[in-house]
TrEMBL record:
InterPro entries: Host-pathogen_enzymatic-act, Quino_amine_DH_bsu, WD40/YVTN_repeat-like_dom_sf
The protein's name in its UniProt record: Quinohemoprotein amine dehydrogenase
Signal peptide coordinates: 1-24
Keywords: Signal
Keyword Phosphoprotein attached: no
Top-level lineage group: Bacteria
Organism: Sporosarcina soli
PANTHER family (UniProt xref): DIHYDRO-HEME D1 DEHYDROGENASE, PROTEIN NIRF
UniProt xrefs under SUPFAM superfamilies: YVTN repeat-like/Quinoprotein amine dehydrogenase (SSF50969)
Length: 355
């Protein structure tokens, strides 16, 4: 009888201890930083601490990467922009695939985003339909797919030129990047012009032309940013900088450097919004108070496409343009090393995976 009583007490103690451990783990909010690069027939998962590379096989060339808030699911545009591979970032394996080209419809994906709950994928598509022997083009549209059911539940027509979609932090709206910036309101089901960039009414403001292939958002605490060039027809002057879209407030800002353009493919802004990094054949660190470069270096291995930043703000990652990802010190721009990959890559995204 005494032994049974002791075992009961021990069992209760163990259950309480296990529950406490689980709660404590949840409360710590620990995350694991991983890098994901899009390559040919592979997505590369790189652990920046150990430099270990996991090769994740996919179909064909990969393009856009988006991920859920907790970092547990990665959505990658594959197979000539027709499909989306879903990757489990804990196991680093493909667990499912979404196909946007079915029956007589042909769709090519140019930008996508996933809702905060991870249930709906919004894909910007260029579409056509085969009718008999004819191929007819359809207006571009955002196709909304129920991820679990693999069914398209909504179509949202958009202007030509849209390429990037990004959810506002609260999930109420989507930032729609085209030649100008549009805002899609989820509840109201409305698409409205949010900010004129390409051909503003005020001609003295200049005309913007920005690169849409390497967007950033979650890496910088919901400050969406992309490299931007502004041309002033009256003077022939061209400036280099960024256009940012605050996905918390909706504010858009055009940042123009007080320096001669040196050529950027992509860039990233620090979480404190004080420093910007941009690169291509060069890597520049820019003070956003003075709008002047603190330092400019040549990239170690030549042209890089995608530039990104670590969660602690201490490391700049350069990936794409070659079969590697390179590390630089964010403060000094000192080269720290290279991790080799199996194929050339297109971009590098930094994902914080909740543990």
């Amino acid at each position: 009888m005494k032994r049974t009583w002791l075992f009961s007490i021990l069992a209760v103690f163990l259950v309480f201890s296990l529950n406490s451990s689980v709660l404590a783990a949840k409360e710590t909010g620990k995350t694991k930083e991983m890098l994901y690069l899009t390559g040919y027939e592979y997505v590369f998962a790189v652990d920046p601490e150990t430099e270990e590379v996991t090769e994740i096989p996919v179909t064909g060339m990969t393009r856009d990467i988006v991920f859920t808030k907790d970092g547990h699911r990665l959505f990658v545009n594959t197979d000539i922009r027709q499909k989306v591979a879903i990757i489990d970032t804990v196991k680093n394996i493909v667990i499912d695939e979404l196909d946007f080209t079915k029956d007589n419809y042909r769709s090519r994906i140019y930008g996508m985003t996933v809702d905060p709950e991870g249930k709906l994928l919004y894909a910007m598509t260029m579409r056509s339909i085969v009718e008999g022997t004819e191929l007819k083009t359809l207006p571009p549209a955002i196709l909304v797919m129920d991820i679990e059911k693999k069914e398209i539940v909504k179509e949202i027509e958009v202007p030509y030129g849209v390429h990037v979609l990004q959810f506002y932090e609260d999930g109420s709206k989507i930032a729609v990047w085209g030649r100008d910036l549009y805002e899609y309101d989820i509840e109201q089901d409305t698409l409205t012009l949010h900010y004129e960039l390409f051909d503003p009414d005020d001609k003295s403001a200049g005309r913007s032309n920005y690169l849409l292939l390497w967007p950033r958002d979650q890496e910088t605490d919901n400050l969406a940013a992309t490299v931007n060039y502004v041309y002033y027809p009256e003077t022939g002057e061209t400036t280099e900088g960024f256009v940012t879209w605050d996905l918390k407030t909706g504010d858009v800002e055009r940042i123009e450097y007080k320096e001669e353009p040196i050529g950027f493919f992509s860039g990233i802004i620090s979480r404190d919004r004080k420093t910007a990094y941009g690169g291509m054949n060069m890597l520049a660190k820019t003070n956003l108070s003075t709008l002047k470069h603190d330092k400019v270096i040549k990239t170690k291995l030549g042209t890089s496409y995608g530039f990104n930043i670590s969660g602690d703000g201490k490391t700049i990652y350069a990936g794409g343009g070659g079969p590697d990802v390179n590390f630089y010190d964010a403060e000094t721009l000192e080269y720290r090393g290279t991790v080799d990959l199996k194929t050339d890559a297109m971009d590098v995204r930094v994902v914080q995976i909740k543990q």
